[in-house]
User: What shape does this take?
Amino acid sequence: MKQKINKISIFPYIYKVRVYYEDTDAGGVVYHSNYLKFAERARTEMLRKMDIQQHKLKCNYNIQFIVKKLSVEYNKPSMLDDLIKIECSILKVSAAKIIMKQVMYRKNDLIATINLTLGSVNSLGKPVRLPTKIHNKLKYNINS
Assistant: This one.
């Protein structure tokens, strides 16, 4: 049986991160994998804004989010001291999946686009349904 996925229309959550020396290579250009770290921070802060703390999810419900699928398109490099704006949007939510898009900008320049699917799993790594309370927060209370 095909799993039903509910579509969500929201405004993106905005997160800003400054590029530090430790984020760059010898030429002052952000190392490609650090964009994934920036995106992780932005997703975590978006969830925190919705009052979904990942530590509480693990302790109270034995649920963790994992990256199930991810694709990155790099458009322009980012450099030391740049301020990167990350727009996080939830596109769809199902019982055990969250489909998201994260777009990174330096001023008006598109730096990178990340499309990803998060899965909810238990401590054994097996997929589990999101609790109704958490599912509803993701579905309805994103701009609260």
Q: What stands out?
A: Helices lie at 34-49, 54-61, 132-140. The domain at 6-140 is CATH 3.10.129.10 (Thiol Ester Dehydrase; Chain A). The two ends are 34 Å apart (CA to CA).
